[in-house]
Amino acid sequence: MATTARAAAGAVLVLAALLALAGAEDPYLFFEWKVTYGTKTLLGAPQKVILINGEFPGPRINCSSNNNIVVNVFNQLDQPLLFHWNGMQHRKNSWMDGLPGTNCPIPPNTNFTYKWQPKDQIGTFFYFPSIGMQRAAGGCGAITVVSRLLIPVPFDPPPPESDHVVLIGDWYTKDHEAMARMLDAGKGLGRPEGVVINGVAGPANPSSPPMFTFEAGKTYRFRVCNTGVKASLNFRIQGHDMRLVEMEGSHTVQDMYDSLDVHVGHCLSVLVDADQKPGDYYLVASTRFIHDARSASAVIRYAGSSAPPSPDVPEPPAGYAWSINQWRSFRWNLTASAARPNPQGSYHYGQINITRTIKLMVSRGHIDGKLKYGFNGVSHRDTETPLKLAEYFNVTEGVFSYNQMGDVPPAVNGPLHVVPNVITAEFRTFIEIVFENPEKSMDSLHLNGYAFFGVGMGPGKWSPELRKTYNLLDAVSRHTIQVYPRSWSAIMLTFDNAGMWNIRSNIWERHYLGEQLYMSVMSPARSLRDEYNMPENALRCGKVVGLPLPPSYAPAR
Q1: If DSSP codes are grouped into helix, strand and coil, which group holds residue 255?
Q2: Which residues of the chain have a pLDDT value below 50?
Q3: 387-to-12, 243, 246, 381, 383 alpha-carbon distances in Å
Q4: Which of 22, 376, 532, 536 sits most deeply, having the most CB atoms within 10 A of its CB?
């Protein structure tokens, strides 16, 4: 009886501790960034890059689910600046999304403080500067979100010895301002000149110092993101298989791969066992689907080894079919917990009725001799007054009009219309979005504010009959999806996060030229339960300068 009483008392104490923890504010992590230009020699010639606290790539944000992240950004560039937190859902808080449609830019020689939470999120993400072509100059860094201590991680013990970030991306030797001028003049960017791995370009050689060190018998986690602007990349480690464990915030079925395609804007995690003969091995990233392929490599060294890497570096796979089949092999781990203790598979997305289908076909055309991209005949342009601020202050007239683009492409391809492209979605409705890419090159699409289920893809044009090919059980929940040339990809999601959210191409040339739109999701209750008021420190510009604040949203009930 005494043992039972002690057990009951212990249970009460544990419950009390959990309740106290639930009532407490989540921990804060503070960062101060000084953003400057610097000079790096990457592909044989010095060029201007964007540094954060002198670092290239920028510093890693390593945090736990629900931490409060406070980043004070000092813009010491000669241009306006914004940072976007790629894959962060910013629940109820598109005010911190860091895009021209949601935020006034940070002027040169001033600062702004971002505050956001990876609310109910875990996984691998990254940030980047979002104005113009600044992303092509660097300023990117990793965001890694680990589970809270009470949430089990679906890895076999012991835990990984180390948790490494690998930022891979294509690289141009042109200055980012020169790239913007080329696009403004109607010219394309052409092919990238090289590939970088964690800010280091080109192939390593046998005498290169190691980027990573292995201890035989240990397991290592590699978090890989393609932070480039155009090229899909294939990632592999010489002589080692990789166990896929996570993609953009979702635990996956842990299948083994000898190489993985990582498309622009995509992130994933793998576990690698140090189970080979001690020596040096190459970690390799190579461009895919473009002529005159480029590669970069780095050295992984087993501790105490002096054996050089083998010159036989594995070649990347060829063709689109291999890549599509690999995508079809990715599966959601239905029994694992993510940021919450309930299993991921407890959300049965395949049993929810679709309330609306939006078919977005990539449009390409010339206006005054200059190339433009868009969706469904509409090419987006940014506005002096950010769309979210114009909506919040009810001064949209003269800034943008809603729903100038239809849910289906026009029957006849006419000239592109260049306008701010904002469409609306009814709050908490379950919507299917189909992307069609009629171009001869790859596309990669991203949706801010949400994770979605990539349920299907295939060649040619989409039709409703193709829904029978969808994966309605265990498609991975994520925020990016690739669309192969002359092909389609389909996603499903519930629009339950109020705010102004960007849907865009990750191919930054296309994005810059208008292949993006904003989705306005408004709660009819106008309640703080669903969306936060504009933060007190929000920058103002355009038409909202000097205006009185609108009434607060209603208190949460």
Answers
A1: coil
A2: 1-22
A3: 50, 42, 34, 11, 7
A4: 376
pTM over 0.85: yes
501, 518 Cβ separation under 8 angstroms: yes
pLDDT in tens, 360-369: 999 999 998 8
Lookup: tokens for 25: 């504010």
Question: What is the largest distance, in Å, between two alpha-carbon atoms of the chain?
Answer: 87
Q: Which helix (H) or strand (E) holds 287?
A: strand 280-287
| Other Cβ atoms within 10 Å of 470 Cβ, number | 17
Q: What is residue 24's predicted lDDT score, i.e. its pLDDT?
A: 74
Using CA atoms, how far apart are residues 557 and 144, in angstroms rounded to an integer?
33
Alpha helices in 271-386 (DSSP H): 320-329
| Number of other residues whose CB lies within 10 A of the CB of residue 528 | 16
Torsion of CA 146, 147, 152, 158, to 10 degrees: 20
The total number of residues written for the chain in this structure: 557
Beta bridge partners of 374: 363
Bridge partners (DSSP) of residue 425 are 521
Q: How far is residue 95's CA from residue 184's CA, in Å, rounded to a whole number?
A: 29
Task: Measure the CA–CA gap between 41 and 33, rounded to whole angstroms.
Answer: 23
The reported pLDDT for the residue numbered 522 is: 97
For residue 395, the SS3 value is coil
Q: What is the pLDDT of residue 5?
A: 38
Peptide bond into 27 cis (omega under 30): no
Radius of gyration of the chain (CA): 24
- Listed in sequence order, the DSSP H helices in 96-175 are none
Q: Where are the beta strands (DSSP E) in 65-184?
A: 68-75, 83-86, 110-116, 123-129, 141-146, 162-171
Alpha-carbon separation of residue 71 from 131, 389, 407 (angstroms):
18, 21, 38
The one-letter amino acid at 244 = L
Q: What is the pLDDT of residue 276?
A: 97
- CA-based nearest residue to 483, from 438, 513, 515: 438
The reported pLDDT for the residue numbered 23 is 53
